[in-house]
Amino acid sequence: MAGFTNAAFREIVRGFGGAGLLATEMVNARGFVWLDENEAEHPDRLWGVAEESRPLAVQIWDNDPDTMAKVGRRLAGEYKVSVVDINFGCPVRQVTEKAHSGSYLLRDPMRMHAIISQLVVACAPTPVTAKIRLGCSPDNVNCNEIAKVVEEAGAAALTVHGRTAKDMFKGHADWDRISEIKSHLKNIPLIGNGDLDSAEKVVAAFQNYNVDGVMIARACLGRPWLFAQAAAALRGEPIPPEPTMLEQREVMLRHYQLVIGRFGEEKGTVLMRKYACCYAQGKHGARFFRSHVAKVSTSQQFHSVVDEFFPVVDNQDRATVSS
User: Fold this and answer.
1) For the DUS-like FMN-binding domain, which residue ranges apply (predicted)?
2) Cα 21 to chain center, whole Å?
3) What pLDDT digit, counting tens, does each position of 180-201 carry?
4) Residue 316 assigned to a binding site
């Protein structure tokens, strides 16, 4: 998830446990090559990748097989990542219509095959995986055909988000469609993605649909403990309760320290605004908190807004806003 799943967030998730494979923000392969050729610092989206714990997947995107292979070779050889994942699912216009990448490539299976097959050779023995959507639009659902292409090209696994590119994130993910894809695969695992925002929904996905794994994305942004809850539920154990509001506040502040430790106070504080909004989402007083935290630009301002407006729990164990 571009702009969110950086090294700071991954460290927070890893601290709670439960996630089998963490993934980076998607990396623009062409931009990576330009930085490398001009001896500039590697993309911020690769921050922490070389040093952090494994397993770890790096997701890359572009539409040129040679460029993708060049970057994949570096990721597998120099960075020694666990998995190189190809993003064929991003529906954002800047990636699709402007760069003819992401979900735009679902209309060009042969190009997808070329990208995957060259990456598989370049990254060997590091596995290469692919993430797709159901199709470009509800009138052009071709996920079954694409699944065959992905496997024939040598990918080690396929992840499918249960919406089309045109849907963006509207409506509901179609898990029946995801499940149908399994019959079109011979050997590689199918991973389902979309609308998994609770441990119970994760368990239901495995019980009701023909998938080998699941991916949690947007739902974890303000709840990095969701993976631990889902893992416990899948083991048949009691689901750990949500952290208290005070504990959630401390998680957010820890996250903030990691961000400013990398980017400095000014840039780090601005970057943290969106994360802070995620932590408050769905809580009483969240809108009021967001309106204030969206304006902070210093560490003092951030802590002041959190102290005054971040939702807390009162004596009646209900969410409220401190004053």
Assistant:
1) 1-307
2) 11
3) 999 999 999 999 999 999 999 9
4) no
- The verdict on whether residue 59 carries a ligand-binding annotation is yes
| Strand partners for 49 | none
Phi-psi region of 133 (alpha: psi -120 to 50; beta: other; left: phi over 0): beta
Residues annotated catalytic, as ranges = 90
Q: How many residues does the chain have?
A: 323
Cβ contact 225:252 at 8 Å: no
- State the pairing for strand pair 83-88/128-133: parallel
Q: Is the pLDDT of residue 295 over 80?
A: yes
- CA torsion 41-63-167-284 (nearest 10°) is -10
pTM metric for this prediction: 0.90
Q: Helix %, strand %, coil % for the chain, to 5?
A: 50, 15, 35
- Amino acid in position 132: I
Please tell me whether 218 is known to bind a ligand. yes
- For 86-139, the pLDDT digits (tens) are 999 999 998 999 899 999 999 999 999 999 999 999 999 999 999 999 999 999
Q: Which domains does the chain have, with CATH numbers?
A: 7-234 (3.20.20.70), 245-321 (1.10.1200.80)
Distance from C-alpha of 50 to C-alpha of 197, rounded to nearest angstrom: 30
